[in-house]
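I had to read the description of the data format several times before I understood it. Each protein is reduced to its one-letter sequence and a matching series of backbone shape codes. The format is easy to grasp once an entry is in front of the reader. For illustration, here is how one protein appears when written out as sequence plus structure tokens:
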Amino acid sequence: MNYQQSINELKNLSKFGINLGLQRIAELLKRLGNPQQRINHYIHIAGTNGKGSVAAISESILRSQGYRTGFFSSPHLYSYRERFCLCGQPISEETLAYHMSDIFPVVRKMTDDGFEQPTEFEVSTALALCYFAASGVDWAIMETGLGGAIDSTNIIDGEIAVITNVDWDHMQYLGNTIEEIATVKAGIIKQGAAVISGADGVALDVIKKKVAEQQASLRILGQDIRFYIKNYNDVSQVIDITASNHHYSDLKLPLLGDHQAANAALAVAACQLAGCSEQSIRNGMATVKWPARLEIISRQPLIVLDGAHNCQGMQSLAVALSKLWPNKKVVALIGMLADKERERALDILLPHLEKIIVCPPPSARAGDWQRIAAYCRDRGKLAVWQEQDVLKSCQMALKLVNETDNSMLLATGSLYLIAEVRKCLSNEGI
């Protein structure tokens, strides 16, 4: 099986949709020799927002310490290879095809034996664990796909568990109250684990209860972990972080936004537990890369990309716009998936926008994307356009920016859309 055949097989599994639970991944990994048991150390990360950022910062710090790292994340921007990184580099096409040539016959034998069909995410999880085990990683950083307890990544025994925050998202799978959603996310807390969390309110109460049940330890952002933003601009920010009574002064972070400072504090606390030195923390934070999160890809004109896809993400984006570019007139290119709370999220962002172009994300979940345009017209009383083609949307957005004094272009919403916009406007890829 070559690389393209492997990718085609993976994508074909998407037709089975989301099917939560650990039975299929447990059976699949058992048949593959339980590679997850050959990986010594895990940082397991769940939460509504910030999972990927905390994971990326943690990975960069651990690598700076000299550890051999594996990093599993989703979704990707340009290539499936980005989901499986070894020491900061995406898996090669040849290595992905090699592992998939082992995995797919096992998947087929499972279904022949009467087991349910493993999903795309479950097979991806199995690939990550096989790859990391074969590569002899010291630490695997695993980002949950959806939830926690019933997410396929929860097959691992994470000695460090990070729950960034808990907000409304994926209610059809996780529950209709914050308490229910938090209960699912707290499912990553294993016996005796070291737990780090940025959650608050009832969600934190749920996490505390789970910590007690599992005889785990807990460090809480705002109590045991604190941060202070000393200065910032639209290139980077300088932060002081205190974790477990150790103070780190003047840490440089090239990711923008108050929310990223909070994510960095969680990552520092996790890496401190993993044995990282202060110098490694400094170096890892200063060199982290995590594209499409308040990412500036052009200065003339100013073009910012941000994958804010839910209410909490839009709130962080709105704060950043007010703080970093308070006087700019914002021309926004927006596309959101239909299974998100689009109207609530847009209500947060609309007051900060001048003009809007609505474009559907290239996903089967885009749904009635034109409804966003109608909603923006009704609620925002703004100039609103809609365009189905991403390239044409980008061209229209640039034209509007050039026609509007003191303006900037903001592309936001689904990462599926942001990836295509980034390709159109920056000519970058993997």
